[in-house]
Amino acid sequence: MRTLADQEGTGRSAHGSFGWHRARRRLRAALARRTHPPLARPGSRGRRHVLPRVALMATFLLPALVIAPGVAHAAPVVTATIEDTSVGTGPNQVSYAGNWTVCGGCSPATPNNSFSYSTNAGASATIHFSGTQLKIYGVREPAGGLAAVSVDGAPSITINTYLLPAAAGLIYTSPVLTNGTHTATLTNLGQNTPPASATVVSFDRAEALTDTTLPPIDQLSKTIEDTTIGTGVDQVSYTGTWLACGGCVPPTPNNSFRYSSAAGAVATVRFTGTQVTVYGIREPHGGRASISIDFGNATIVDTYAATSSVAPLFVSPALIHGTHIVQILNLGQRNAASDSTAVGFDRAVVATTTPPVNPLPPGSPNRSGQPWLSGVNGDPRITPADVDAFCAYRGSLCDLAHVYVARDSWASIVQPSFAETNFAGWPGRLVISVPPFPENTESSLATCATGAYDSYWRTFGTTLNTTGRQNSIIRLAWQANGNWFQWSAINATDYVNCYRHIATAIRSTANPDPIMDWTINAHYSQLPPSHNPLDIYPGDAYVDNIGIDAYDQYPPSPTLSAFNTQANAIGGITWLYNFARAHGKTFGIGEWGVASGSGNNGGGDNADYIQFMRDWMTARAGQGFLYETYFNNCDAGNLGSNLNRPYSTGCIYRNPNSAARYTTLWRNPAAL
User: Fold this and answer.
1) GH26 domain: which residues (predicted)?
2) How many angstroms separate the CA atoms of 27 and 435, rounded?
3) Are 303 and 287 in contact (CB under 8 A)?
């Protein structure tokens, strides 16, 4: 939990928000005009044209924007370089949509003497790669505009490609990813920031990196062959004319594939999983196919090749865990080199990231009667009596008690302590917030990242076993995107590797595994240096639940419009929920509440904030929203979120309006 005292020294301005409003440097040079290449001619949507581009000669100064690279795991190896000219939808290729122009022999120079650029809003370059991380290189220049980068369909990151003077170089580094196939899409937003003279976005190349030291991915896979025919899950159905080719060339794993030369013929594969790769035939007779997921935007695939081979035709982005449909449509079209319009389907390989632990045993209703797990922190002593008193006040039992271990020693953190022993026999579940190491002991993220503390965390896993709390939600190293804890992510790589070591160590002894929770603080991220909290995401293999701590402060939400704007912005609750669902993770809110203790930077006794949060939760009930625990507090120097405790020398905040709204919304007499 973060106190107001914890926030001191964070550099927030008089306008609030932890240094959100930083002073901008004055621009000390005028922007030189530049001659732009002609746009793609009408009717040439999606084509790229080769023409020289005017060299950029003037010298300028760098603006105040700092774009720091994302996380890189220790010593990843570059396994593929994808140049702007490696066009296609297969592995280690880039596909373009909208108007892009190839600039050969232009300035600034690039390794292959070529880059591609676009000036049009919505133009995109999609990079298909395998590995654990991606670096995108482009051109920053006086005409540079804003671009968005999204990996595997996750919420996008905005980058600014304006620079004085122009230079080719790194423009984006992805977070560390699970080791597998991915897509990254660079999209021209059609916007810029003054004094940029245009909205040019350039793509030079991408580097796919693989960290071979990563442990195996907790992932399952299955294959749906062309012969597994039906309309059920993990089957394929055919409409139109499709012919079976048994024992044909090229050979396939099951010695069979289907093909069609008729326009409108469709192969439909239904599957349950988080990603699908469609394999087909590339051949001299190959035509064009349209491939789509869940009836969304289609990818056009040209299956022509000079020689026949079985090859991946399409790799989907990461999907929410569930049932999906991929369709392969024969367009009845071909390129000039092909002698037919054949489209072949061999098989679909489905990846399924292991879903998180079932929140409740099958058939067991929540104690609270809410459609999600609901609880509180048990202010002031973190005891069952305090938790139950709050729950009785609100009018419904609590499913969860949120406890915090002491942070002064390894024994307090990993051995049975008051956090577990106080709640012996309590029928609900625990949310346990644990630091990665004891504070003020010369321990560090850098040391943790080497695995030096793994033995302690194996002890913690054993503690969960001996206290019967294996079903707990473990909030490990929470709010590391702030700058008030000793585990704050000043070095993003150290934080990621530390989290990974701890999660692996706990899972090695706890049986069954607890739910590993990665939680950020809402709104602005002081850290990592990129100010993007996704740069410290430990990765799908190590995280079961993604969470946020969301208070009505820095800034408050006086209106629904303000609430929604903040929720959808980077660091907002909706933004992070969408990221969690795109990665097949459940979502939780470990701390939330009104903020009467935050002065003008908080919303005070804002009953509407209680309503906004409730409506937000209700809209996502049954859609991956796992839990929420209200943070109730009323001591001086803290949030002032108290709903039920009476005034006293140790309790100086009350929020009667918020309390009335909360009890009305959470009351469930049948659950008492």
Assistant:
1) 351-672
2) 43
3) yes
Q: Which helix (H) or strand (E) is 665 found in, with range?
A: helix 656-666
CA distances from 114 to 54, 138, 321 (A): 14, 11, 39
SS3 338: coil
* Pair (153, 202) in one structural domain: yes
My answer on whether 486 and 343 are in the same domain is: no
Total residues belonging to the chain: 672
Could you tell me the CA-to-CA distances from 88 to 98, 314, 609 in Å, in that order?
A: 15, 10, 48
Closest CA to 433 of 377, 359, 370, 481: 377
Mean pLDDT of the chain: 83
pLDDT at 1 over 60: no
Task: Give the strands of the sheet with 180-188, arranged side by side.
Answer: 93-97, 124-131, 180-188, 146-151, 157-160
Q: Grade residue 479 by pLDDT with cuts at 50, 70 and 90.
A: very high
Structure tokens belonging to residue 116: 């591609």
Q: What is the CATH number of the domain that holds 662?
A: 3.20.20.80
Eight-class DSSP state of 246 = E
Whether residue 78 is found in the same domain as residue 168:
yes
Task: Show the CA angle centred on residue 346, arms to residues 344 and 350, nearest 5°.
Answer: 130
CATH number for the domain that contains residue 197 = 2.60.120.260
- Encode pLDDT of 260-317 as tens digits: 999 999 999 998 887 888 999 999 999 999 998 877 667 888 999 999 999 889 888 7
The 10s digit of each residue's pLDDT in 491-523 is 999 999 999 999 999 998 998 889 999 999 999
Each residue's pLDDT tens digit, 535-559: 999 998 899 999 999 999 999 999 9
Residues paired with residue 150 on neighbouring β-strands, in sequence order = 185
- Specify whether the CB–CB gap between 488 and 31 falls below 8 A: no
pLDDT in tens, 197-251: 999 999 999 999 887 655 444 455 789 999 999 988 899 999 899 999 988 889 9
Considering its fold, how many domains does the chain have in total? 3
Beta pairing class for 545-551 and 157-160: unpaired
Instruction: Identify the pLDDT of residue 541.
Output: 86
Does residue 374 contact residue 368 with C-beta atoms inside 8 Å? yes
* φ and ψ at residue 535, rounded to 5 degrees: -70, -10
Q: Are 594 and 635 part of one and the same domain?
A: yes
Identify whether 486 is part of a domain: yes
DSSP conformational letter for 390 = H
